[in-house]
Here is the input.
Amino acid sequence: MKNNYKTIAVGAVLVFFYALSLSGLSTVHQSRQSQMESMISRMPPKLLTFFAGEFKGIVADYALIEAASIFGKAEKVTPEEWDTISNLFILTMELDPYFMQSYHLIDATLPWFTKKYDLSISLLEKSKNSRFWDWIPGYFLGFEHFYFLKDNEKAAAYLMEAAKIENAPEVLATFGARLANEAGNNETALIFLKAYYEREEDKDKKAIIAKRIRLHEAVAVLEKKILSFKNDFGRYPTNLMDLIIFGYLKQLPLDQYSKTFSYDPESGQVLF
Amino acid sequence: MKEGFRNRILHGIFFFVFALFILDCVLVNLFTRDLGKVAVDIGLSTMSISGLVIIFFMGMNLLSKDIDKLTIYSILSRSVSRWQYIVGKYMGLSLLVFISVAVIAVLTAVFVKIIIHAYPGYIPPLFSWVQYFIAVCLAFLSLLIVTAISILFTCLTSSPFMALLLTFGTYLIGQNIDLLVKAINQSATEVNSLFIVIKPITWLIPDLSLFDYKTIAAYGLALNVQDIIFTVFYGATYIMLVLFASVLIFNRRELT
Here is the structure.
């Protein structure tokens, strides 16, 4: 009987200490987790590639899950954690540059939350070069150049390149051409759209592109006349009506979308 | 072969495969794009891991057990020559690896098929079963090479642990030999002595990275038939050479 009491007492003490240890476990778990995160994310990509061996794909998946788990936590992501996420993206792209999930996460986070445009662009470039069948990385690159870097020339180049890929929506072609015009390359936009029109087989898409070609042709006519005006008068016309008043045009071509073209008398640029 | 099946490690491996497939179901749901790719990644990686576990933990013991328990005498006294014994052990072990590879490859294919059916829009558009089949075959060939190397090191050393370490080291370097070759080619003009020393090592150690078609299978990337033919030819000749060397070493080995 006495022995039974002893056993129960020892058991109770052990359970008490075990319960005590459990209460502190969550702190240990958190600290261990941050150590684990830093372990893989601080590993040089080449070294990780070496140890990953034939399991590069699955290690890339793991790195991506880890990045998503940091980004998706309830608390605000700290700058240090963003560095960890960035490193994990670099690792995952080194191990498997083909993965669609990677470039989607990169595009949805790096430029928006960290302003690491160079890193984001270099990783998306890797994805674009690997996934030759996929128009989305090119579209993301075009969007980042247009929206964040305000570089319409490069944005147009990326969008027009992406538009050439099979199954790409025609809006990439029209948007790319529009940005090319805004960057002062209407002629490039026109050549691109005409080639796109020739290649396209879908009747509906062809009709959209044909309408857009007419628009860029109208801009080309206006630009030509504006240049003649500048050569004669040494300045750009004050507004597009000057081209009619001074006899360069009998009537202004119509913008088929907004009816009138916008015009910048400072640069002589015609926009729509 | 029978001995291999009697070994409990095989049961453990099949349990491990089963557990990994449950994990597969969970992991795939953590992603929202290229789900087929994730399933192929996990499946083919499981296949390679289980094959390696069979070779490292079971295959290497089969030979050393025979020697330690002196059962090798009863085998060799039954008009079985030493080369037949080595080749027989290799074939038996290869068959075990084949069974493991075949089971996992079929299970992975079933799982991928389910994903294709359930989430047709989330599969890499170029995915093809041809690439998948070739990736499985080449992964199996890669495991056959590792099996041959494990036989060689078991013949070469008396300690199974040493043989395991040497086989694992060769496997790890073999997976990254293309990195080594690239590094040598880049520094060849500057450090010529390094080139002379390391280049022969790249001939001795098999280039296992050539057999890794997991990414190609996961995304259905284009195959180069000529590359595959050369890779298979390279793998087959390497296995034959290693087995030949194993027989030569085993013939000279004192079994007391």
